[in-house]
Amino acid sequence: MGSRSENNSPNHEKENSNKTGDENRGVLRKRKTTLQRRNSAPNLKNLPQTPTTNSTSNRTSRPSYVIPKKEQIRNRKLSGPRPKTTRAASPINYKVKEYLARADEKIEDYLERIVQNVDSAQFMVQSGVQKLRDWKATHFEKLPAFLRDNNYLHFGHRPELGNIAACFRSIFRIHTETANIWTHLIGFIAFVIIPIVFYVKPFCDNCHEDIKIPDKLIFLTFFIGAILCLACSTLFHTVSCHSKHISTIFSRLDYAGIALLIVGSTIPWLYYGFYCQFYTKLTYIVAISVLGILTLLLLTMEKFDEPEYRTFRTIVFVALGLVSALPIIHFVFMNGVSESIRQGSLVKLVTMGGLYLTGAFLYAARIPERWLPGKCDIWFQSHQLFHILVVAAAFVHYHGISEMAMRRLKDLGPQCPTLSVTLDSTNIV
Predict the structure, then answer these.
(1) Where residue 327 falls among pLDDT bands split at 50, 70, 90?
(2) For residue 383, is pLDDT > 90?
(3) Residue range of the domain that includes 372
(4) 3 assigned to some structural domain
(5) How many other C-beta atoms lie within 10 A of the C-beta of residue 421?
(6) How confident is the model at residue 68 (pLDDT cuts 50, 70, 90)?
(7) 81 pLDDT more than 60
(8) Which residue has the higher pLDDT, 48 or 290?
(9) N or C end of the chain, less CB within 10 A?
(10) Is 56's pLDDT higher than 50?
(11) Is-contact 190 372, C-beta < 8 A?
């Protein structure tokens, strides 16, 4: 009990509190000294100096450095990096840099345009190919009635499209009408170019004078007839699959074009063949023109547009051609065979007629697909052969009438001989 009372006395409590305070103060002093040592540089003067024999060993063993003060570090931060000295740019360098900058901008613009054009062209090609593949070729039995023209052609027919744009896009696809379109389309382009060259270039390069204007204008009847015939035929074979109404309209235009070609081919030959027989020439030209108009009106009737009148249409065209050939018999009878060959280009005239008749016969008889049904669906049909022979005959006829005009210019001259009557003075009463 006595020991406990002594420990719990107030004096004893004061002594214990003094001891703990002293201990805390010592700890704080130690912390301050350690912080001062860390933040301050070592005092080299107070360090014990050891004797050294060589100065170089001392440098290597212990580095000598001075830690910068805080004020010096602050001054360096505030001052910042040293400014770089820039040289004054010359005007030439400035212009070069300006040109280079502009060139970079232009190159970027061109590259952007090229990329845009390539993308648009690719899109157009893809859309075009997709549009061309919108329809599939069908069999003859699946066609509507107005498209069933040749039962010997089995497959590869175009269906009823009902769209003009789709019909014209079908030009670039393979089907039963592809060759029919292109044979007369190429001929049409050729006979558009030939008149331009004919009327721009002198008719005779080695002649002293050119052909007269009326003698040159008469060729227009042939050129117009050939161009209209080939154009109407191309349009008909292109849009015949649109609908029955459109097919009927353009088929009549096709027949009208054939009649115009026959009449237009005959008029220039009559003009040069009967050059000095004015009334004979005029009579034949009027008669052939009237017959051509009657043929045109007859074949444009709706009744004769049906497939069963195919042979009848062919006979009408052949009859018009034979009637147009009647003046040739008159010419041969008047001038003889040899002179007719020399003056009237009779060989080329007969060749032209033979090509027309052969093509018409193949067209009416449907040869060769009649002998090879299903084998000539795309190529070598009778209609295609007929088109090729028509274009060939037109070129032969153009060469023939050009020879007649050249002979008239070089040998016979533009003037016709006149009859002169000499009277004897003794016979005069």
Answers:
(1) very high
(2) yes
(3) 138-407
(4) no
(5) 4
(6) low
(7) no
(8) 290
(9) C
(10) no
(11) no
- CATH, residue 359: 1.20.1070
**H or E stretch at 145:** none
Please give the angle made by the CA atoms of 299, 254 and 134, to the nearest 5 degrees: 130
**Cβ neighbours around 307 below 10 Å, total:** 12
Residue 100: phi and psi, rounded to 5, are: -65, -40
Task: Specify whether the backbone of 336 is left (phi greater than 0), alpha (psi in -120 to 50) or beta.
Answer: left
| Total Cβ atoms within 10 A of residue 334 | 13
CA distance 221 to 195: 11
Kindly indicate the confidence band of residue 341, based on its pLDDT and cuts at 50, 70 and 90: confident
DSSP letters for 342-369 = HHS-HHHHHHHHHHHHHHHHHHHHTTTT
When divided into structural domains, the chain yields a total of 1
Tokens of 115: 């990329």
Find tokens 């007649």 and name the residue.
404
In a domain, 362, yes or no: yes
From residue 213, how far is each of 76, 381, 413 by CA, in Å? 103, 42, 14
Could you tell me if 288 and 241 are in contact, meaning their C-beta atoms sit under 8 angstroms apart?
no
73 falls within a domain: no
pTM value? 0.66
Summarize the confidence of residues 362-368 as an average pLDDT. Answer: 91
Is residue 223 within 8 Å of 268, Cβ to Cβ?
Answer: no
Q: Tell me what the pLDDT averaged over the chain comes to.
A: 79
Question: What are the C-alpha distances in Å from 13 to residues 16, 24, 26, 257?
Answer: 5, 17, 21, 140
Length of the chain: 429
Give the tokens for residue 152: 């010997």
Is the pLDDT assigned to residue 59 strictly greater than 80? no
**Owner of token pair 């018009």:** 320
Would 122 be classed as within a structural domain? no
Tens digit of each residue's pLDDT (9 = 90 or more) over 220-241: 999 999 999 999 999 999 999 9
